[in-house]
Amino acid sequence: MSHVVWLDGALVDPATAALPITDPGVRWGDGLFETMRAENGQVAMLDRHLARLSASITALALNPIPTGADIRAAVDAVVAQLDDTPHRVRITVTTHPTLLVEATPYEPADPNTGVAVVALPGTWWPGNEIHEHKTLSYAHHRLAHRRAVAAGADHALLIDAQGRLGESDAANVFIVTGGTLVTPPVEGILGGVTRDLLLEAAAAEGIPVEVRHIGASEWRGADEVLLSNGLAGVTSVLTIDGAPVGHGTPGPMAARLRQAYTAQ
Fold first, then answer.
1. Which pLDDT value is given to residue 93?
2. What pairing do the DSSP bridges indicate for beta strands 98-105 and 165-168?
3. Residue 36's domain is classified under what CATH number?
4. 61 plus 132 within the same structural domain
5. Single residue among 52, 78, 105 that ends a domain in this structure
6. Over the Cα atoms of the chain, what is R_g?
7. 11 and 4 in contact (C-beta within 8 Å)?
């Protein structure tokens, strides 16, 4: 099936699935979502995604909310309808309480290609704690993405007023400098599930890892810049504002981390 939807207790026809206008997610963008990759009957890092969702539910005092058992059962029901090809699986929860799980086909990008990004200064605010949760209030990131596309790029880098690197419009960001893997702290950015996995995998392989702020001269002059999320895994950034990153091709760290991601 090309589009599978579970809504509030049952599989439903995607063409007729609807949320009430009184749902807080519809009215205020008040709710949470998780996006994951399903393939061969399995959802990558499902336990990690559900743990992050649960932590955000607690932190944002969302109540009433669908139970963890109900969420997992809905995901299982949706995945059971899929073939073995890659799919994007999205969980949405609100305090209506609404539980929506949907799956759509996903075509992975060629790992030997990369993306172009543009830097958007003044779009990351380290003190904005709400951006540390994957809420339905996603207009900020969507606007950043539209600005990037309008500039002829694939994604945007969100930069604070001091020129420091935060995240992208849809992923966490790493840089590689002198063989060290560096990523910004979770301050006004989403603590990504794949980000955490890659940090753990890098440490296990003996790759030097640093979690700290990254100034403009450092991220613009990095050997590699990488994006990570639960759907695409690891993606190499080839250019920033039209200037090549390193040699302008995917680098060796990207390949090592991609192996760690696919092995999870």
1. 98
2. unpaired
3. 3.30.470.10
4. no
5. 105
6. 19
7. yes
Q: What is the pLDDT of residues 148-168, one digit of tens each?
A: 999 999 999 999 999 999 999
Shared domain for 142 and 227, answered yes or no, is yes
| Mean pLDDT of the chain, nearest integer | 96
Domain that holds residue 8: 4-105
Backbone angles phi, psi at 86, to 5 degrees: -65, 140
Same domain, residue pair 16 and 63: yes
> What is the Cα–Cα distance from 1 to 115, expressed in whole angstroms?
30
Quick: pLDDT tens for 47-97: 999 999 999 999 999 999 999 999 999 999 999 999 999 999 999 999 999
Q: For the chain, report the end-to-end CA distance as a whole number of angstroms.
A: 26
247 exposure class (CB count in 10 Å sphere: 0-12, 13-18, 19+): exposed
d(CA 25, CA 28): 6
Last residue of a domain, one of 59, 82, 105: 105
In this prediction, residue 1 carries a pLDDT of 60
CA–CA dist 216, 157 (Å, integer):
11
CATH code of the domain in which 155 resides = 3.20.10.10
120 and 210 in a single domain? The answer is yes
Query: Is there a contact between 196 and 55 (Cβ–Cβ < 8 Å)?
Result: no
Contact 17, 7 (CB under 8 A): yes
Tokens 């609807």 found at: 18
